[in-house]
Design brief:
The complex is a heterodimer of chains A (182) and B (137). Chain A has 182 residues and is an all-alpha fold. Chain A contains 9 helices and no strands. In chain B, α1 packs across α5 and α5 runs antiparallel to α6. Classes of the chains: A mainly alpha (182), B mainly alpha (137). Chains A and B meet through α2, α3, α4, α5 and α7 of A and α1, α2, α3, α4 and α5 of B. Chain B: InterPro entries: Sulf_transp_TsuA/YedE.
Chain lengths: 182, 137
């Protein structure tokens, strides 16, 4: 049981995600998590004010169920499959983060400096992050699941362009904006 | 019955993301600093299995559960939307350390600030819907 309670190796995580993608294709669906944001907007009535949300969102209910499962999966992992081991980060990463004031690096799963308190500074950062994720994924027509996993597995070059974009954005944020924010 | 399968696949996905630490802000930070194989190995493993699986389904003319031959929907052959949209998403991914899946996995795990992220992601999606026709694709 110890192997189940300890963090799972990356190759186990990657293999399980590939299995989930293939299972969804076999079920006649596709693996694309961010589509749920569009579906939720439509279900909340966004179709009244915007054409983009005027579609049969009920046909996407399977994906909302998948989302519900993901929430349950997070709950089960923490409640029943966790011994509290923090990610064993690279030493250089931990040292670098300590220098930037992230003292929880190497000790927590999520940084307490960013998610531990509901300060205005933190809430503002969550809001900006959310806006970027929602706007960016729909603009790019997919997120990590639809492009980096599914699109690349299908050898579609537009998905490679998207993944290159993800990395440009991520590198900009971490190396250009983080020193200004934190 | 089919509904239960989608929920169970979601549970498996959520466990894989959480337990293999792809939902940890720290792992994403580490990835964008090229300091560990962890996230690259995660994605590479998924792709290795994914490419083989999908190519096999395509070439063998495999059918899905409804008896339809499995085909791949080609994405539109353009660059701006993928590159620009991708950059926006990448910035958000690095900032909150979670892509859309892990945002919800972490809500389940008790990281409730992700509720705020999810609500604003809905707002961001709505904003895209409103601006769609004015943006380069």
């Amino acid at each position: 049981m110890e192997w189940l309670m300890n963090p799972w190796p990356w190759y186990v995580g990657g293999a399980l995600v590939a299995f989930v993608m293939i299972a969804l294709i076999w079920l006649g669906k596709t693996f694309g998590f961010s589509s749920n944001f569009r579906t939720m907007c439509a279900a909340l009535g966004a179709g009244k004010s915007c054409d983009f949300f005027r579609f049969d969102w009920r046909a996407q209910q399977w994906n909302l169920l998948f989302l519900l499962g993901a929430v349950i999966g997070g709950f089960v992992s923490v409640q029943f499959l966790s011994n509290g081991t923090a990610p064993q980060l690279a030493e250089t990463t931990i040292a670098q983060l300590h220098e930037q004031g992230f003292m929880s690096a190497g000790e927590a799963y999520a940084p307490t400096e960013l998610f531990g308190s509901w300060s205005w500074h933190n809430i503002l950062l969550w809001a900006i992050g959310g806006l970027l994720i929602g706007f960016g994924t729909r603009y790019a027509g997919g997120c990590t699941s639809g492009h980096a996993i599914t699109g690349l597995s299908e050898l579609q070059w537009p998905s490679l362009v998207a993944v290159i974009g993800f990395f440009i954005g991520g590198l900009l944020m971490v190396h250009l904006f983080f020193p200004l924010i934190f | 019955m089919k509904r239960l399968i989608y929920i169970l696949l979601g549970v498996l996905f959520g466990m894989a993301m959480y337990k293999a630490e792809a939902a940890s802000w720290f792992r994403i930070y580490e990835m964008f600093n090229f300091q560990s194989i962890h996230m690259y190995g995660f994605i590479a493993t998924a792709l290795l299995i994914g490419v083989i699986g999908i190519q096999w389904m395509k070439r063998s003319g495999a059918k899905d559960i409804d008896g339809q031959v499995i085909t791949i929907k080609p994405k539109s052959k353009t660059i701006p939307r993928y590159l620009i949209g991708g950059i926006f998403f990448g910035m958000g991914w690095a900032l909150v350390g979670a892509c859309p899946g892990p945002v919800f996995v972490l809500i389940g795990a008790g990281v409730f600030p992700m509720l705020v992220v999810a609500i604003f992601a809905l707002a961001g999606t709505y904003l895209y819907g409103m601006l769609k026709d004015k943006l380069p694709h």
